[in-house]
Amino acid sequence: MNQLKLNLTAVACCVVLAGCSTGGALPVTSGPAVNNSKQIFSNINELGYIPPQSEYRIGPSDLLAITIFPAEGLNQEVRVDSRGYIALQIIKEIKAQGLTQQELARALEQAYSSNPEGLNNPKITVLVKEAANQRVTVEGEVTKPNVYAIEGAMTVMQAIAQAGGPTTLASKDKIILFRTLPNKSVKAYRLNLTAIRNGQLKDPYLQNDDRIVVHRSDSRYWLKEAAAFISPINTLNNLVN
Fold first, then answer.
1. What is the DSSP letter of 166?
2. How many CA atoms lie within 13 A of 107 on its CB side?
């Protein structure tokens, strides 16, 4: 019997991994965690409804827009390299990683002022146009499912709008926000776009690596898929027992 359980567990692991790798629906058997949505979804009051106050710190692959006054000819967009540095027309290399937009602007002003080919008392602004370090995945029944950069303080509605909005097949009350916690566990929150649009619910702000899934209105297995994603160990137990 123990050997049978081990064999079934191995098969179940393959099924879960295959489902995760292909992104397809994962068929699981019924169980308490699947049938009771209250055991799947966490309280939406846990989500953040106030814009994040901490300043964004620049990281590799971020796209920056550098504006220099009074030398507009030196304005340019530049992407942070894998080492965390940027290269400009006069300042050939300066570290940007770990700095806020304002801190990098002040560092550039000092660099341009001290460079023999530089400028006298320049005024520089830095804008993060694409925050590659902060991303949200929007998938399911949206026009343009993809991974999107979180630019500033982005909400669920704004992320779905950036993905082209829900398709005609989408169910606006079957929106799930998956969030990975620091301990690597995953929580799921069920949201209702219609209620948010009508002002009945607040529009929560996103965090890095959030995943939004918009389900179809005729989806029969959406609760099972949610349960499988947040608790694969429980899914294995359901299959084996």
1. B
2. 17
Segments in the chain forming alpha helices (H): 2-22, 32-35, 37-40, 101-114, 156-162, 193-197, 222-230, 232-240
Angle (nearest 5°) at CA 141 between 137 and 146: 30
Q: May I ask the CATH architecture of the domain 2-52+134-240?
A: Roll (3.10)
> Phi-psi region for residue 44, left (φ > 0), alpha (ψ -120 to 50) or beta?
alpha
Give the dihedral of Cα atoms 222, 223, 226, 229; nearest 10 deg. -100
Residue 213 buriedness (CB in 10 A; 0-12 / 13-18 / 19+): buried
Kindly report, residue by residue over 30-60, the tens digit of the pLDDT: 333 334 566 899 999 999 998 876 678 898 9
Give the number of C-alpha atoms closer than 13 A to the C-alpha of residue 153, restricted to the C-beta side.
Answer: 11
d(CA 196, CA 203): 6
DSSP character string of 191-211:
E-HHHHHTTSS--PBP-TTEE
Angle between helix 232-240 and 222-230 (nearest 10): 110
At 206, give phi and psi (nearest 5°): -90, 160
Considering the domain delimited by 63-130, tell me its CATH architecture. Answer: 2-Layer Sandwich (3.30)
Residues of the chain with CATH 3.10.560.10: 2-52+134-240
Q: Is the pTM of this model over 0.70?
A: no
Ranges in the chain annotated CATH 3.30.1950.10: 63-130
* Residue that the structure tokens 């398709």 belong to: 167
